[in-house]
């Protein structure tokens, strides 16, 4: 059976006083419309590339609008573990809304209580837990050649999450990736946290999910314990069809050289991640495209205030600007970095006309990467880093009571996040794989009562 096509188109509606760009997204039989109001005089043209560019700028500014929500419409129930602040969830929910469905957050879990609180403020999951996900589900399995699979049906072992069993359509998860990261020179590919990936098929079975999206760094493919292949075999032993691919943030329109490994498992049919990535492909964009409009914003909030720098780092930044350089000369580096180092971007200055490197939790520290602003004598602000990560301005990096987390917490949440644009493509691929069961009513995603 062929995979339902994914088609996203944009048109310009200038029939009223306020011009609008209208997005139509179809995923098989699911179709939806949304729009963003724009200044027509600011448009470069009316080609699809021009309208895509203006639309994506409007998305970052938080200007996307949807029809009034129909409470009787189709829903898709989402659970997110290792959820962080919710970049993956935001993108998947956007895909669901864009094709006319109503996303409902059923469950969220993360050991980081601050990140989970930010997630709750934005998505309001019905059930949530800060317990380690690895200990929240049973996951005994055998890897003998004659049989590869769970030795008993996995079950949820966290009373705060058991009520979500049977109420999840799509399970999302980003197991800890530090053990696979290229920046981890100590335990890379042999980190004990790598095993957490196995929690995803176990949770999928225990919750009764229809589809699963798992994201990680590309290095997961080279884990010494072969955890990715084991997880794929566990999914397949329970009846899921599995696909995987690498999502490149630059190819999806973000000016950041970030890549993520995406695995999608579906009970209905094999997902086509490559087609989804192709459907949402964008031309390369530079840093100015994402944060140029923030250049003159007043630093009157924690999100728009640069990090406090040491006198030594201030001198390094001043030297870069005073000499017009973008790479710091060796004599200005710490002694250990002066000769034979392999990280020229450290203490580096960003360029307006190029994408940034990967945004990490250290974007507020010059010694952690190329994070010095192109024309301001400071590192990136939290707001700028969030924009480069693809978060719209309407996403609230705030606690339940409205207070702003500490700079350390914000840096951790933003640097560790999955860009919503990657979640959007992955969510569309998962929904496409589920479209037959959604249309037939075989999935709980077809009826509002399924959210209860």
Notable traits:
single chain; 7-stranded mixed beta sheet; 26% helix; alpha/beta; 4-stranded antiparallel beta sheet; 452 residues
Secondary structure: elements and pairs:
Elements: E1 6-13, E2 19-27, E3 30-38, H1 48-60, E4 64-65, E5 75-81, H2 87-98, E6 102-109, H3 113-123, E7 127-129, E8 141-144, E9 147-150, E10 170-173, H4 199-207, E11 211-216, H5 227-237, E12 241-248, E13 259-266, H6 273-279, H7 287-291, H8 311-323, H9 382-388, H10 407-416, H11 420-440
Helix pairs in contact: 2-11, 4-5, 6-11
| Morphology | globular
Radius of gyration: 22 Å
Structural class: alpha/beta
Query: Helical proportion?
Result: 25-40%
Q: Return the average pLDDT rounded to an integer.
A: 90
How many beta-strand segments?
Answer: 13
The N- and C-terminal alpha carbons lie at a distance of 32 Å
Count of DSSP helices? 11
Q: pLDDT under 50 segments (min length 5)? A: 184-189
The SSE order reads: EEEHEEHEHEEEEHEHEEHHHHHH
| Biggest pleated-sheet summary | 7 strands, mixed
């Amino acid at each position: 059976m062929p995979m339902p096509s994914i088609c996203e188109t944009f048109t310009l509606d200038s029939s009223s006083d306020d011009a609008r760009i209208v997005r139509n997204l179809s995923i098989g039989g699911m179709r939806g419309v949304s729009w963003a109001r724009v200044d027509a005089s600011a448009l470069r043209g009316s080609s699809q590339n021009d309208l895509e560019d203006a639309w994506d700028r409007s998305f970052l500014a938080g200007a996307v609008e949807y029809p009034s929500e129909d409470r009787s419409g189709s829903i898709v129930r989402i659970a997110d573990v290792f959820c962080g602040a919710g970049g993956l969830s935001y993108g998947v929910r956007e895909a669901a809304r864009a094709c006319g469905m109503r996303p409902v957050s059923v469950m969220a879990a993360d050991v980081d209580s601050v990140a989970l609180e930010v997630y709750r403020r934005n998505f309001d999951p019905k059930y949530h837990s800060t317990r380690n996900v690895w200990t929240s589900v049973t996951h005994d399995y055998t890897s003998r050649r004659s049989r590869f699979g769970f030795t008993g049906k996995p079950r949820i072992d966290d009373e705060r999450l058991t009520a979500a069993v049977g109420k999840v359509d799509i399970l999302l998860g980003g197991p800890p990736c530090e053990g696979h990261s290229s920046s981890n020179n100590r335990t890379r590919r042999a980190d004990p946290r790598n095993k957490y990936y196995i929690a995803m098929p176990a949770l999928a079975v225990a919750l009764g999910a229809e589809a699963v999206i798992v994201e990680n760094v590309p290095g997961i493919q080279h884990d010494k314990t072969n955890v990715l292949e084991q997880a794929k075999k566990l999914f397949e032993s329970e009846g899921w069809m599995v696909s995987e691919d690498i999502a490149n943030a630059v190819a999806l329109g973000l000016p950041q050289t970030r890549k993520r490994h995406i695995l999608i498992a579906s009970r209905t049919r094999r997902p086509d991640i490559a087609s989804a990535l192709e459907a949402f492909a964008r031309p390369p964009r530079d840093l100015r495209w994402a944060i140029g409009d923030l250049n003159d914003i007043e630093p009157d909030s924690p999100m728009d205030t640069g990090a406090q720098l040491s006198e030594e780092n201030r001198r390094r930044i001043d030297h870069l600007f005073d000499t017009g350089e973008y790479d710091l000369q060796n004599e200005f580096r710490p002694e250990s970095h002066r000769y034979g180092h392999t990280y020229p971007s450290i203490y580096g200055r960003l360029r307006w006309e190029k994408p940034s490197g990967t945004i990490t939790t250290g974007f507020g520290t010059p010694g952690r990467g190329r994070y010095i602003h192109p024309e301001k004598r400071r590192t990136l602000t939290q707001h700028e880093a969030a924009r480069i990560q693809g978060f719209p301005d309407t996403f609230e990096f705030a606690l339940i009571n409205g207070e702003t987390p500490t700079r350390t917490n914000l840096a951790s949440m933003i640097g560790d996040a999955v860009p919503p644009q990657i979640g959007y493509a992955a969510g569309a691929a998962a929904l496409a794989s589920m479209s037959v069961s959604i249309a037939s009513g075989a999935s709980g995603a077809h009826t509002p009562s399924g959210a209860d």
